[in-house]
Amino acid sequence: MNHQCLFGSPIRLRWDAGSEWQLVRAIVASMPDGATLRKRAATMWRFAEALPVPHPGALSMGEGMTPLVVAPGRSAAFKVDYLMPTGSFKDRGTVVLIAAALQAGARRVVADSSGNAGTAIAAYAARARIGCEVYVPAATSSAKLSQLAAYGATVREVAGSREQTAAAAAEAASDPGVFYASHVYNPFFFHGTKTYVLELWEQCGGRLPATLVLPVGNGTLLLGVYLGCRELLAQDLMPRLVAVQASACAPLARAWADGSAHPAEVAGLDTIAEGVAIARPVRGAQILAAIAATQGTVVSVSDEQILGAYRDLAAAGLYVEPTSAVCWAALLAGLVDLEPDSAHERVVLPLCGSGLKTKPYFDGAVS
Predict the structure, then answer these.
(1) Extents of the domains making up the chain
(2) Cα–Cα–Cα angle for 281, 96, 346, nearest 5°?
(3) Do 68-89+188-357 and 93-180 show the same overall fold?
(4) Angle at 94 between CA 93 and CA 99, to 5 degrees
(5) Spelled out in words, what is the top-level CATH class assigned to the domain 68-89+188-357?
(6) DSSP per residue over 103-136, as a string?
(7) Which residues contact residue 17 at a Cβ distance below 8 angstroms, ignoring those fewer than 6 apart?
(8) Fewer CB within 10 Å, N or C, the chain?
(9) CATH number for the domain formed by residue range(s) 93-180
(10) 207-266: per-residue pLDDT in tens?
């Protein structure tokens, strides 16, 4: 049940002549009208017609419909996705992915993650009462390791890079009856993360903001957002996508600056934004193509800028992990054009992961 094709390439969300992102097993997504939406529960499943699996019943924990919060002192808003059952936006893709695993008859799932995807997969696997094995880099935060253990997952720490961790998980997933629950390779995940923008469309009165700023490592949120935007395109203008990376590990920002359609070769130095520290994103070319299609851009911010933004958000009552502060850091650094303040023109940034899932960076905790 491995979800890679030969030679390790990811299953494609196909790019056809009409420039539509599609599943390998294509679905016809549709949007219910406003009157219908108002009668439905405030979860991501209110957009059931746009998802490739039916409502998963008791598997769902009410994920989705996270609030929009006004950003302090800027014409921008935060979509607070750390208010999810496991504390990160990864629940959006994971609930769809585990629902697909159950449909496939999986008895056990294997995943690789630097933290948030793994904890989400472990939680939903526990709820589905199927086995779960998660491969993590040795540098994964202790808070996330504790969360994985609490859900009953078997944790395999890999002394190596993020790419070596993924390779170890893919090898384990070749066993019979095992479902490779990869948030990078498996296209079902992107149909879950696209609900971020479907919700935003509804929350903004049936339109989308002019600019969406997104943190990018493997691009699971950005590609899901782009997929959702394509499905909404007949009803709205395509937003400009601005991707933000940590300067210490920025293969996409480097490629963008060089005019390349493929990720640059980078060393991948340590960064406090561990969630976007992906030196070799397997969907890098797709990410760059999606950004180019929206006349967007890719920028990077230093750890010093990320730390300042992290503390700034906490001072505004928003306690996030450092990875979630990269977009705010880019905005504070003047790397994001701010449009006039109106329902359509404003900028929206996600707050993707809770600060409770990583060590605190206050009171001299960072040298």
Answers:
(1) 68-89+188-357, 93-180
(2) 65
(3) yes
(4) 105
(5) alpha beta
(6) HTT-SEEEEE-SSHHHHHHHHHHHHHT-EEEEEE
(7) none
(8) C
(9) 3.40.50.1100
(10) 899 999 999 999 999 999 999 999 887 555 789 999 999 999 999 999 999 999 999 999
